[in-house]
Amino acid sequence: MTETRPILALRDASKAFGAINALENVSIELHPGEAHALVGENGAGKSTLVKILAGVHLPDRGTLSVNGERTLLRSPAEAREAGIAIIHQEPVQFPDISIAENIFTGRQPLRSGRRIDRKAMDDEATMLFGRLGVPLDPDRIARGLSIAEQQIVEIAKALSLNARVIVMDEPTAALSAVEVERLFRVVETLRADGVAVLFISHRLEEVFGLCQRVTVLRDGKLVMSRELAGLSADDLVHAMVGRELEDHVPQETTIGDPVLVVERLTREGVFVDISFEVRAGEIVALAGLVGAGRTEVASAIFGIDRFDAGRVTVNGKELGRGSPAKAMGAGIGFVPEDRRQQGLVMEQSIARNLSLASLRRLSKFGLIRAAAERRFARDWATRLQLKYGRLSDPMTALSGGNQQKAVLAKWLGRSPSVLIVDEPTRGIDVGTKAEVHRLLEELAGDGVAILVISSELPEVLRLANRILVMREGRLVADFDHAEASEQTIVAAATQARAAAA
After folding, report:
1. Long-range contacts made by residues 67-70, C-beta under 8 angstroms, separation at least 24?
2. pLDDT digits over 392-448, tens only?
3. How far apart are CA 75 and CA 58, in angstroms?
4. I need a labelling partner for 85 at 20 to 30 A (CA). Which of 9, 114, 362, 480 fits?
């Protein structure tokens, strides 16, 4: 690979928050026309490094150079002026204005009388989407855009600011396979224009498919920074976790009687005639394409969404419709797909989040007993090996993987007989993923009935005793673990679309 002068170089950067060293003597270079992967376990320091590049944090030590000149980025505005743009996993946009207005907010082109020149704004947005090869209508209102489309809008905004460095933080976590392919084409277009792309992902197959160079962090320290050529996925995993991950041996469990029984569950326009059961000690996976109705079925079982027909029974007792409180009382725990928005209260303390589902037992005369809450939280933080500073710290202080453990701990504290887990390892690293898998298997071994929803087929095949496949709101296949494969699952999930094509 031909070496060029780096557009951006961070050298020997260190950053501490109190007694915690988030980064220690970390260096990274980003070159024009190159996609550079940044990988590491949750808590390795990736987010801190990105916030330094974004102007959110100043490093305690170290230097940052942009286009060969040393600089200090004291704010996000200064980072943008330096040509650095951050594309977050879930971009935030103004939903009630057009795509073009979102791109040019605060700097709209003007005509005489200082009136906004809408035609010039739309023409410029169209040109940007043309560069990216994505035919988005600049007059379209932003509300209703998919996550993938929102990311394209943010990339167009970055190009309109003449960004020469674009940081993509877990950009594919919420995307379908088709949307991932489109994003990859956009990245190739950016590379052809000489833009440096920093790509942060836990999906190693995407790292190898897209990037030319990789930097690995572990516990805030630099482990390696080199070209990807000659490396294997096992090499990266070992560098990230510092140990060999144990080969998975399926845990032998005794399957008991049905605990969760779903009969002919229907919600008009969303899912139809869904029937299945999950037995004690059994892990059942719901597989299928994004939009097949899997999350909607889980939400209806737990009472978040109402259903029009059918019934749900737990341990032989029928649940009412639309009542999470009744579902919890019947022994169901629910770990949602979006842990930050639906599973946790991010501004509240770690202790309060761990105890949220168990406040009644931790209260006396309607008042929460602080000492009991601390003991409860400390016990579960220890059991799940949570990495934290103080239990009084806000949930925002935890890494994504530890936040996922916290959601699990919140429900495990209630000793559920049924646990529904939607995308259990979304956005977490390989080491923490292995820990979550082991935990779910241990719960099944203790007789908990587990319903897992996952878009990752290797995860489905690793965990599940049985695999149910949904397509367009219907259950279309039921596989035992022994007869399931990625090919059979994909074939069942896509059969209707293939026939239509």
Report:
1. 67/7, 67/164, 68/5
2. 999 988 877 788 889 988 998 889 999 999 988 876 767 777 888 888 999 999 999
3. 9
4. 114
